[in-house]
């Protein structure tokens, strides 16, 4: 499979997203329950709602697309545009909602998932949390992050109907689709007084729900993704369509202008719960698929019944190859989980080299911030650890999921180390890594060296999103072990880590052979590298 500029394939991107969706307490954490706020005070003080911020971020990123020119769309250019007037949204902490959104994603960042894919995934996670009945929005992987800001052009509430229609048309959306997009987006969240005092504050509905927040909600159910805003608008009940309909400041009545631009035909057609949900899943998917020309998106990601959460090869001190990891299943797609998971190791001809059985399954805790988060039902994980015979090229789990295994060349985590200097303030400084890797001696040459690649989330100017940096280093021969030659090399992090706790990976290459990437982070218990104070001694 083709690799992107970060050295990542589409399959790796899909699997990384599936792994997050099937790990309760990760990407669902900041938006569960739907009224949760990750970064500041509770909703009843601040009126900040992370799920609403994540959904709004999709709009502000994609809408400046120019589909005819093939530019813009969902590309994380929004990360460079947080200070613009048209992206106004100040949180309780005084930050831009865009920066808080991206820093939230950075908690889970790794080279496999671009910030633009996180923005798309954030919408899926928000819908999972705000409407438990929602099937996942059609979510593809593969968006490429912009390296700078895009053009201006996010419609503001004071803009004319024509200018809003023009912006949507440029992004490939008809008038009807614009109405649908606005109605779907404004099902959750609010308009905040801190951002729009000319809207919130001159209206009798101010602070109706929840009281005292300085936030005026779009409908009576701001924590539920549903058709209430449309219904209340059409019937003149409850919030009557929310502040962008009811504000006495006529210029700012953008939802009213948009909804009635076709005599309410479009909103009427989406007033039932089912038609609202179906319409919104279609229109959200269209927003997510609006990407710069030439971007290859994957098939829709819906976590497969069985996947691995993590796998890696290793070499015992006596030179025996070991393969271990974690398997995961979800009850929604796979039904009741068996006590253990079964799998076979296959050779390149498809014959079985060895059969195996995992440890007993462990039901994952789906209690996230005090509520049960089970968009994929119960999740069960199984660990496994095997010695594997020569010639194995893949593992097939539960006759359902296959993963490649490259025994020719691999990083040896149990013989690799991290030196993490500590800053005077006690925080971790820039770390160095001693990497050992194994290459089948039969494939090696007398002068062979390996090229290692270290994948690192660097800071970039003007955006809090990480810029993935690839640092290469050379590994030279150290010794032989069993049928393998061990190579050794050292790499130092190229600089300061982007905000958040993103994960690093390392892989090695010999001519056209490339190993799998292995997690090598200094601050995660999931890392397999040992700690070492003096790398010359490890
Ligand atoms: C002409 C188009 C649109 C205009 C003028 C508009 C305007 C606004 C305004 C003024 C706010 C209040 C922001 C704040 O005070 O924090 C807002 C919030 C919001 N908008 Fe829109 N919007 C438009 C389209 C959309 C679309 C297409 C979506 C769909 C993704 C969307 C999703 C949201 C969400 C979820 C919020 C709530 C944010 C929060 O509670 O923090 N909007 N919008």
UniProtKB/TrEMBL annotation:
Domain Plant heme peroxidase family profile: from-to ranges: 50-284
Metal-binding recorded as keyword: yes
Gene Ontology biological process terms, A to Z: cellular response to oxidative stress; hydrogen peroxide catabolic process; response to reactive oxygen species
Pfam families hit by this protein: peroxidase
Family matches, as InterPro entries: Ccp1-like (IPR044831), Haem_peroxidase (IPR002016), Haem_peroxidase_sf (IPR010255)
PROSITE patterns: PEROXIDASE_4
PANTHER family referenced in this protein's UniProt entry, alphabetically: HEME PEROXIDASE (PTHR31356:SF53), THYLAKOID LUMENAL 29 KDA PROTEIN, CHLOROPLASTIC-RELATED (PTHR31356)
UniProt record similarity statement: Belongs to the peroxidase family.
Annotated protein name in UniProt: Peroxidase
Organism of derivation: Periconia digitata
Classification lineage: Eukaryota, Fungi, Dikarya, Ascomycota, Pezizomycotina
